[in-house]
Amino acid sequence: MKYSGDTVSKPVVGREAELLSEAIKTGGYVANEQAWVTIRRITEQIKKEKSNTQK
User: Fold this and answer.
1) Residue percentage of the chain with pLDDT more than 70
2) DSSP 5-27
3) pTM of the model
4) Are 31 and 20 spatial neighbours (Cβ–Cβ below 8 Å)?
5) DSSP conformation class of 54
6) Which of 12, 36, 39, 40 has its CA nearest to residue 24?
7) Distance between CA 55 and CA 51 in Å, rounded?
8) Quick one: which of 17, 33, 34 has its CA closest to 25?
9) Source organism's superkingdom (predicted)?
10) Is the Cβ–Cβ distance between 16 and 8 less than 8 Å?
């Protein structure tokens, strides 16, 4: 499948292919470490803002 724009397609093999296959079967998802770092940062900000407004 080809996409217009600036995307790069790479074959998915090995452990990554197993994780992706399992995520598809269970309705889950796969995220890389950088995504988790971003998610943690955002949730920490939200918690901090909530605690500041409750004071």
Assistant:
1) 84
2) SS-------HHHHHHHHHHHHHT
3) 0.46
4) no
5) T
6) 12
7) 7
8) 17
9) Bacteria
10) no
| Tokens matching residue 53 | 């407004």
9-21: per-residue pLDDT in tens? 778 788 888 888 8
3, 9 Cβ separation under 8 angstroms = yes
Q: How many CB atoms lie within 10 A of CB 7?
A: 7
Kindly compute the dihedral angle of the four CA atoms of residues 49, 52, 53, 55, in this order, to the nearest 10 degrees.
160
Tokens of 30: 């796969």
Alpha-carbon gap, residue 7 to 12, rounded angstroms: 15
User: Which burial class, exposed, middle or buried, applies to 53 when counting CB atoms under 10 A from its CB (0-12, 13-18, 19+)?
Assistant: exposed
